[in-house]
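Sequence only, no structure available. Ideas?
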Amino acid sequence: MPTLLVVNREDSFLPPGWVTRILPEGEPPTDYEKSGKLWTPVTVPSCAELEKTIAAGMQRLSAKGLVYRQGKLQELSGPARIIKERKLSAPALVRVPGPDRLDRSHSTLWDYGPGRTYGTPQAAFDALLAQEGSAAFTETHYIRGFGGTYGQGVSGYVLYVSTVTPSAGFPLVIDAAEGGSMIWDDDCGDCCLVGSDVPMVRVKGLVMKGAIIGIAPSDNEITKDWRVEDCEMDGSGGVMNVGVLTYNADLLRVENCRIHDCAGAAIGTSNLYSGDYQNTVAIRGCLLHAGFDAVWSNSETTLLLANNTLASQNHGVTHDGLRPFALHLMINNVFVPRGTGLNCLHFHDLGPDGVDVLFSDNNCLFPGSGSVAHFNGQDKTLNEWRALYGSDAESIDADPELAGDYVPQRGSPCLGSGAAPDTHGITGRRRAVSIDMGHEQTTEATVPAVALRRMPEIVRRK
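Reply:
I predicted one. C-alpha cells follow.
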C-alpha cells in the first residue's frame, strides 16, 4: 500500500492534510520527514487519485495537489493559489523549524537524496516554504540534490515552486552537489520544474528528461529573473516538446546548456499559449538541437544570442505574429540545418520594419537549401539581410563543417572567425581575434598582438 507524507500542523503555510510526497514501494521516509515537525507518514490503500495520469499532449501548466483528511483523499488544483489565500486569511501562521543540521553561516541548504535530510526536491522545497512562507529572503536558500534520479511528484511535476520570495542578492538556487549525477525524469508528465510567481531562481547542473517541458519559470503570471546554467534538457526519449519555456518569463538567461532532441523548440513557447506579454531572453554558450525550431516566440520579444549552435529541421529563430521583435545582440552563433535546409531567421508575419537589429556580426548563417532570413513570404540572402540592417559584415554563409557532436572540425570556417562581443577601442584595434563560432571554444585563443596567422590547434574541452 502507498505511504504518503501528510502535513500534520494547523499553523504552517502548507494546509493541514497536504500530501507532499508519495513514497515509492520499499522506500521509507527520511529521519526528518518522520520526525513529526511537519509531516506524518500515512499508509493508505491504493485508489484512483493515486494512479498516475499519462499526459496526452501539451497541457495548461497548472499543478494539482492532494489533501488527505479523515481517511479520504481529495484532489485539488492550483496549490499556489490555495497557499496564498491561506496566508492572507490566516496571517498568524508560524514558521516551522527545519532540522538542526541546516547551515546558516551564509545561506540555508535544504538537501535531498540518499541519506540526506529530505527524500525529494519537492519535500525539501515544502520544508523551505513551511519555514519561510512568503517573507522576502534575507539569505540565499539552496535546494541541493546529492545524486540519484527523481520522478514525478504529487503535483505532476518533479518540483513545483510557489509562494516564496527570493530578494535582491538572495536568490533561490536549485542545484546539484559536485560529483553527483542528478536526473529529474518526469516520466511523461507536463514539466520537470515549474515556477509560480517566484522570481530570482537559479537552476544549475541538472538533467531534465521525460517531460513535455523541461523547465517553465512561470505557469500563468509574468515571472522575472530566472537563470538556467550548465543543465541538460534531454528529449531523446521522444517526449520533450520544449526544453526551456519562455511563456511569461522575463529577464530569462539560459547559459552553457545542452538542449537536444526536442520535438518542438529548444527554447521558446508554443502557439497554445497567447503572446500578450513582453520578455527579454538571453541565450549564451548553448547547443540548441530541435526537431522544429531552435528558438520560437510569439510575444513582444527582445533576444540576445551569443556563442550558440542552433541546429534544427525547420528554422533557427522563428517569430510568429505581429508583435515586435528586437534582436539586440547576435554574435558568434552557428545556424545549421538538421536536414537539407532551414531559414536561419524566420519572421512568419512581420516585414523588415517590424524587426529591430541592434548588433549582429560574426555568425555562421548556413541555411543549406533554405534562406538566411525570411519575412512574411519573402526570402533574403545574407547580402540582402546586410543591406536591410547594416549588420553582419563579418558573418558568413558557409557549411560550418561540424562533427557529430556539433563542434567544428579541423578546417571549419567557424574556427577563429568569431569576435569579442564588443571589439571597440580608441585605437581601432580589435580586442580579440580568435573566438570560435558556436557553443564550444575548441581552439587556443590568440590576441591581437599575435602577428603570425596559422591554423588553430584544436584543444577539446574536457
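The helical segments are 79-89, 121-132, 382-389.
Hope that gets you unstuck.
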